[in-house]
Amino acid sequence: MTALLCEEHGPPEALKLRSDAPVPQPGPGEVLIKIHAAGLNFPDSLIIFDKYQFKPALPFAPGGELSGTVTALGEGVTGFALGDTVSALTNWGAFAEYVVAKAASTTPIPDGVDLDVAAAITLAHGTSHHALKQRANLQPGETLLVLGASGGVGLAAVEIGKAMGARVIAAASTEEKLAIAKAHGADETINYTTADLKTAVKALAPKGVDVIYDPVGDKLADPAFRTIGWGGRYLVIGFAGGEIPKLPLNLPLIKGASIVGVFWGDFVARTPDLHQQNMAELYAMLAEGRIKPLISARYPLAQGGEAIRAMMDRQVTGKVIVKAGETA
Ligand SMILES: NC(=O)c1ccc[n+]([C@@H]2O[C@H](COP(=O)([O-])OP(=O)(O)OC[C@H]3O[C@@H](n4cnc5c(N)ncnc54)[C@H](OP(=O)(O)O)[C@@H]3O)[C@@H](O)[C@H]2O)c1
Question: Is residue 293 in contact with ligand 1, taking CB distance under 6 Å?
Fold first, then answer.
């Protein structure tokens, strides 16, 4: 099969398009999927440098989520049939024609859902839904501050937060990115390149915000945390900004606030039934038009490295997909 392979750890420009990669075989509890498209995510830019928590053996294809068609079933798999269209989380392997996924991490795609959208909904919307629902217990009428609000997980948090009835303040680095967040449901916006984040949030929410969704970390975490209200929840999502921040522990003390870790991949592995319930809810929100995932760019498989580079250069908004069937 054709696959875009990481043969040695390094930059996306070093990925190699190979046409003779072996088709993986599904083991017990796994399905083989012929890929329609893969969703791009920040972890793709970490895993090729060997800087991610998952460390697959070389060579491997990046690509942690996809949509496609089931073409083989491993031993003991029930609930799927050959020809089913599915979306799945694989953590890596999806920048290729075929990938093996755990059946427990694979979800049937409801009729009428665009396969490009299905390729892009699992990881970002799955993470933000789990974070806001199970980790933050976000309530209607609460105020939600989203950092990196036009990125993959950030824009998903804006959409899902709005769908859950929150007032959403979107924060991002450019006016173009904020316009996208607004178009996807943000009530108010803050440009943290031109404005002081803490001052701007306090002007919009003098009593403090209830939930902070932070996929950026770095220098934004401290000023963001200082805007949290009494009983607030600070969701630790990721560190796209680079540095893992440190926070003085008097800050949560004086606000009666919580710092809440989110590890969606482990949530999927540990509680697959709950994950499937969440995916069913996401597909229902999609059908009702309450979320409208933005696909801002499509790359053929051969240019998957360029897609990763664009993400590393902060040029990506919403979701980008890599089309496994298009190699030129
Ligand atoms: N905890 C979990 O379970 C989980 C699950 C999925 C993803 N994540 C993490 O969430 C983070 C975001 O992932 P994503 O796929 O949404 O990425 P993304 O689409 O690239 O979004 C990241 C956002 O971070 C901001 N950013 C600030 N400094 C940046 C930099 N130096 N390079 C790139 N972006 C920068 C950008 O917004 P501005 O330009 O507006 O600042 C960008 O839109 C990553 O750290 C990822 O590992 C965590």
Answer: no
Instruction: Give pLDDT, residue 308.
Output: 98
> Can you tell me which atom of ligand 1 is nearest the CA of 46?
47
Q: Please tell me if the CB atom of residue 242 comes closer than 6 angstroms to any atom of ligand 1.
A: yes
* CB 241 near ligand 1, within 6 Å: yes
**Residue 279: closest CA among 95, 71, 67, 94:** 67
Using CB atoms within 10 A of its CB, is residue 74 exposed (0-12), middle (13-18) or buried (19+)? middle
Query: Which architecture, in CATH terms, is 3-121+294-323?
Result: Alpha-Beta Complex (3.90)
When pLDDT is averaged across residues 20-35 and rounded to a whole number, the result is 98
The whole-angstrom separation of Cα 20 and Cα 2 is 6
Q: Are 180 and 317 in contact (CB under 8 A)?
A: yes
Residue-wise pLDDT tens digits, 53-65: 899 999 999 999 9
* CATH T-level topology, domain 125-265: Rossmann fold (3.40.50)
pLDDT score of 33 more than 70: yes
